[in-house]
Amino acid sequence: MRSPVDKINVLFVIMQMEMGGSERLVHNLVLKIDRDVFNPSIAWFLGDKILKEFKDLNVPLYHIPKIGRIDISAMRKLGDIVKDNDIHIVNAHHFMPLVYSFYGCKVKNHTNLIYAEHSKWEIERIPLKWKIAGHYLLNHADGAIGVSPAVTTQIKNKFKIDDSKALTILNGVDIEAFKSENEKQTLRKELDLRDNERVIGIVANFRRIKNHIFLLKAFNELIKDYKNVKLLLVGQGFKYDSENSEQEVRDFINERGLATNVLLLGFRSDIPQLLGIMDIFCLTSFKEGLPISLIEAMAAGLPVVGTDVEGIRDVIIPNRNGCLVTIGDVMGLKNILHTLIQDESLRQKFGQESESLARRTYSLGQCVKQYQDLFTSIMK
What is the pTM of this model? Predict the structure, then answer.
């Protein structure tokens, strides 16, 4: 039995060393977790370059190269990490990390395993054979987390697990990190933004599910009526991702002659500062779980516009903190953006409500506490 003074060793397992929504959540959890109680570490499979943000966490980082569809050696390596570092709890984010963590936790070792899922659509697309496997894995795991009630319900329905095994922990963001006004003018100058130009932005990696083309079509119509506007696309595509849409986005921009008004910023670590120079945040995904980028925009006090889909409609309250638009309604999206650009008082009203909602519902402190409480209860 562990002594009461021992710390709980937690290994977070993520798919890739990049900064999408789930990776940002894990980063924030490790950053804010109580180091007097927990020893966190991180393992990942894809991408061998360690991001500075993860290096700066000052925790053990383990790269497990994954080759092929089912890589038994990767499972064994993860099992060795669990054993050699006396890991007490593995928190696997997304289904594939769950599959690869199961061997190391439940076959090779006797370690607690918690699964966290970030969107309904990722669960929906799991084929039948893995649905059956998932039922077995999760009924032998120690818990499952959904980032929203809808995701939690989908986990229970898809894998036929008992209600007591699943819980909801809403994504959270560090509200105070998005309130700084520092370096605003410096960043506008760096991006060559004039004082009279309004800025629309999206923070989303280039994946087809994020539906950048819909936003670009609406923006192409918008600049016919309003010239003093720029669109910031923050994110990147990944060569190993079958959903990669970066080339499609670049081709659209070049074919429509939008390069002057659309800025492709790639991966950026200064998201709070970038949100600080935006006037409107827009997320046009086909599907979402509980989008951290949208919550961060709210924390920054921005009016938010998004497609009327599950996940986004859970966060945007029409005519309170922003607007929803039907997927494919190019002129509808263009008109919403035009109205917000022209009406500063409406932007301020929506922005103030955004910040208030983020502070009440999506605080990182509340999110971290719930993870810590779960880890502690499992060890008891």
Answer: 0.87
